[in-house]
Amino acid sequence: MKRIITAALSILLLGACKKDITSINVNPKTPTAVPAAALVTQAEHTLANTLTSANVNLNNFRLVEQMWQETTYTDESNYNFITRPIPDNDWNAFYRDIIYNLKLAKGIVPTDQSVPDAKVKANDIAIADILQVYTYYYVLTTFGNAPYSEASDPTNLFPKYDDAATVYKDLLARLDADIAAMVPTAASYGAGDIIYNGDVPSWIKFANTLKLKMGITIADSDPATAKTVITAAVTAGVFTSNDDNAKFAFLGATPNTNPIWVDLVQSGRNDFVACSTYVTNLQAYTDPRLAIYFTLDPNNTYSGSAPGASSNFGDFSHVSDKVEAPDFPGLLLDYSETAFNLAEATERQLIATGTSAATYYNNAITASITYWGGTAAQASAYLAQPNVAYGTATGTYKQKIGIQKWFALYNRGWDAWIETRRLDYPALVAPATALTVFPERLRYPAAEQNINGANYAAASAAIGGDVPGTKLFFDKF
């Protein structure tokens, strides 16, 4: 009997081993197939985190724009972006974590049997592509010429760099194709899309608003294309209120919190105070956003440290509780910026909508103040001031719009940097201790120099040198 039981157990064990032998090598915690929606979620999160972050290893443009100032370690405030691998980190975030993930998502959608509706598939592919276009906008306006036609190919370690202006036109063509492909009545990623929760009409409006933004960016370098692009975008329909704003909703609990909360609160570091340049200008305009952007200093007023200088954290105004709240959203594109772009397009005679530049300008400022928690009455009082009112404010339209856009883009330092270079306002003075001239671009990553040397050298020569003072394709004046 004992021999019979032993033999039976041996047969059972042998059968079990035969049945499960291939599953032994499968790690249930590392899936081999990823849903497209999950890749889009991850890409959106990385995109919002990169553009919103206050981490000195990733995003230092609030410092460049003299909105904030470092207290102890002042390298980045003085334009030192090479001691830390900042260009490498930005490049990797854009290419590896956003553009490549979105490429994978677009590749998964066509054969995804869980999404049988062809219209939904079309929407999913178009939205992922729009996000890629949006990301490339920052690559080109940050570095200049960059890998594009040969990018995101893991088998090609030495991609060539494409001409930035040529790529830019192709991105605009892609936006047109994406808008045409989307079906407003069909669904898309749903909850996998944190920005618009899969609402396709919102994505169509976003794409047109991005076209307007991209068109105004090249208004000096390619006015003919700018006019065509802007006219088409405005005709199709761009943002009309703060309800249209593209926001990434960070959560109140880790790990998906506002990166500013991570960098300033969770880390327990006292690295940043307000910069005197920004505070002084906000005070000069009696701007109601000053009290929303910053805290009071020990003297019960608002003050900032000099740009580039070290300081005592306790002596100056700090980032407000609102901005560093764990669930404060990351803003990617908004109505205030859009209205400023419309005001500029009107001044440049790139559009003729029947609305004056002054009206668009007023709408932009009002939208910013109310978005930040101010009131319409505060906005009206602000606009009534002679140094703010469009008809009486000092300077050309570039100066008027440039200064007020700088105020409105407070928590969007990357975009503020693009606008300062393009409009030449505000006229920021480099710190006396600055390592370089005002940065017109970031240097290419050190990894590119070391690994993709031949293509790096060709790109550097083509743009006029891999140095911070090289102006990029869109910045002609």
Keywords for this entry:
6 strands; 18 helices; mainly alpha; 477 residues; two-stranded antiparallel sheet
Which architecture would the CATH scheme give at its second level?
Answer: Alpha Horseshoe
User: What shape does the CA trace take?
Assistant: globular
Element-level helix/strand string:
HHHEHHEEHHHEHEHHEHHHHHHH
Uncertain runs with pLDDT below 50, 5 residues or more? 1-18
Number of domains: 1
Tally the helices. Answer: 18
**How much β-strand is present in the residues?**
under 5%
N-end to C-end Cα span? 97 Å
The major pleated sheet works out as: 2 strands, antiparallel
The class by helix and strand makeup works out as mainly alpha
Strand tally is: 6
CATH level-3 fold name: Serine Threonine Protein Phosphatase 5, Tetratricopeptide repeat
What percentage of residues falls in helices of 4 or more residues?
A: 40-55%
What is the residue-averaged pLDDT?
94
**Spatial arrangement of strands, main beta sheet:** 1-5
Q: In the CATH hierarchy, what is the class?
A: Mainly Alpha
**What's the gyration radius in Å?**
25 Å
